[in-house]
């Protein structure tokens, strides 16, 4: 298994390119099941999660080709489509559940394995199923699979209010309602930029959607959707992660393609910690104002709040802040697994349920640490960049799920980082 070796070596300078969003791409790809015509996504990231979604869609009968070394994915679903999303693929990645809505809309039935638990929490599917039931679907659980059936004549428009603004359930609802008969309304919908990106793509395919980016989305169903070409939105989580590199090490780095609107609450927190962020035509330029950052308190929340997917990386920064910071995780119940690993590097962290208290130390120290999930792995790399000596992060397959060429990107701004193949 590969590991990553990082040597802390001071300030970072230069430009770093931000790729298309993994999470947007994972929702856009299943949209190909909604039409017989080709859907082409440009700016698609090259990541193992995208390969997993490719394998899933191919297992359902979609044809997928990558042009330009994986940066563009062209997809088509004109042949026979299978309704069965097998456990063997779904268990690898929870986002596989995003084929449920499209399969149900296209075929009138779907059999999709439940994803099972994942390291950061139980992650049930009830918000997806109740949202689709509002469109007339009947869904039951048999042998670990959700068996979903549309009424005779197909899904019909419906009004539904979610008890929590789930990103995935909003995406499934949007795709299914686009081909339902009549008008659908989703209240308390998720507002993440990836939802807006999916709605933009569906509109290019002929869907009639209004209100995406707000808590109330209205969809007028259409009879068919057609092909389209769509650029995947910038990855705000990769953006925030790389913004933290100069925040932790000092220096000035421009994240090319970054926009404030994607990441406002995070930038406000950085400002409180003593990090300047300016928007310019090339992207976002990040500079640390003084030698030490200040402690800040954060609470994760659905967009536009502080993203849970940046909590681990922010914790790495706060490990060397002046004072004590409180981090409250409200989205996932088990998302502090990076804390004991950071502690091995000299960090002082007390975890109590969904709250972590981080008392800043003068200097982190390099150590052998283990990645436990995608965002936890990158937080350890960030900490390693600021630590004295060498840090080796093992189990980096987690990292390859969500960061394209991370060693090359960080080396490009002066970091000492290399992959060790074992
Ligand atoms: C998406 C992102 C993930 C991010 C998360 C929250 C993708 C591919 N993944 O995941 O990186 O961390 O949003 O911003 O876009 N829940 C239920 N029942 C459900 C569905 C969810 O209780 O049916 C709970 C989950 O357990 C979790 C919370 O709702 O506690 C948020 O989940 P959700 O917004 O659905 O996240 P995902 O779409 O899975």
3D architecture notes:
The mean pLDDT is 94. The N and C termini lie close together (6 Å). This protein has 14 helices and 24 strands. Strands 22-23-1-24 form a four-stranded mixed β-sheet. It has 422 residues and is α/β, with parallel strands linked by helices. Helix 6 runs parallel beside helix 7. It is elongated, with a radius of gyration of 21 Å. It has two domains: 2-19 and 234-421, UDP-n-acetylglucosamine1-carboxyvinyl-transferase, Chain (Alpha-beta prism); 22-231, UDP-n-acetylglucosamine1-carboxyvinyl-transferase, Chain (Alpha-beta prism). Helix content is 30%, strand content 26%. Residues 23, 26, 94-95, 121, 123-128, 164, 166-169, 194, 308-309, 331-332 line the site of uridine-diphosphate-N-acetylglucosamine. Uridine-diphosphate-N-acetylglucosamine binds next to helix 1, helix 5 and helix 6.
């Amino acid at each position: 298994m590969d590991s990553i070796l990082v040597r802390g070596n001071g300030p970072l300078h230069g430009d770093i390119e931000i790729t298309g969003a993994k999470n947007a791409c994972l929702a856009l790809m299943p949209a190909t099941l909604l039409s017989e015509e080709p859907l082409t996504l440009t700016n698609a990231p090259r990541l193992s999660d995208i390969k997993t979604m490719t394998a899933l869609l191919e297992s359902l009968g979609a044809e997928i080709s990558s042009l330009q070394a994986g940066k563009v994915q062209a997809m088509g679903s004109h042949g026979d489509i299978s309704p069965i999303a097998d456990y063997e693929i779904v268990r690898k990645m929870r986002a596989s559940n995003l084929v449920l809505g499209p399969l149900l809309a296209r075929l009138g039935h779907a059999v999709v394995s439940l994803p099972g638990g994942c390291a950061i929490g139980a992650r049930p599917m009830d918000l997806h199923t109740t949202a689709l039931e509002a469109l007339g679907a009947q869904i039951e659980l048999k042998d670990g699979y959700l068996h979903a059936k549309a009424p005779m004549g197909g899904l019909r428009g419906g009004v539904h209010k979610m008890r929590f603004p789930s990103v995935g359930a909003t995406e499934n609802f949007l795709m299914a309602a686009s081909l339902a008969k009549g008008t659908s309304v989703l209240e308390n919908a998720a507002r993440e930029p990836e939802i807006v990106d999916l709605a933009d793509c569906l509109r290019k395919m002929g869907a009639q959607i209004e209100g995406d980016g707000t808590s109330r989305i209205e969809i007028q169903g259409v009879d068919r959707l057609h092909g389209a070409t769509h650029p995947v939105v910038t990855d705000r989580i990769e953006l925030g992660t790389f913004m933290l590199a100069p925040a932790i090490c000092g220096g000035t780095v421009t994240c090319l393609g970054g926009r404030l609107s994607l990441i406002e609450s995070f930038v406000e927190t950085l400002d409180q910690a003593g990090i300047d962020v300016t928007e310019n035509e090339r992207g976002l330029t990040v500079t640390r104002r003084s030698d030490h950052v200040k402690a800040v308190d954060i609470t994760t929340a659905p967009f536009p709040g502080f993203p849970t997917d940046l909590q681990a990386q922010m914790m790495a920064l706060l490990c060397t802040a002046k004072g004590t910071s409180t981090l409250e995780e409200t989205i996932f119940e088990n998302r502090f697994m990076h804390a004991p690993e950071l502690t091995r590097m000299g960090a002082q962290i007390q975890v109590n349920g969904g709250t972590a208290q981080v008392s800043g130390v003068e200097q982190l120290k390099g150590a052998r640490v283990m990645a436990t999930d995608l965002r936890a792995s990158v937080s350890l790399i960030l900490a390693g960049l600021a630590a004295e000596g060498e840090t080796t992060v093992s189990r980096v397959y987690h990292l390859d799920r969500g960061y394209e060429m991370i060693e090359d990107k960080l080396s490009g701004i002066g970091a000492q980082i290399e992959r060790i193949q074992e």
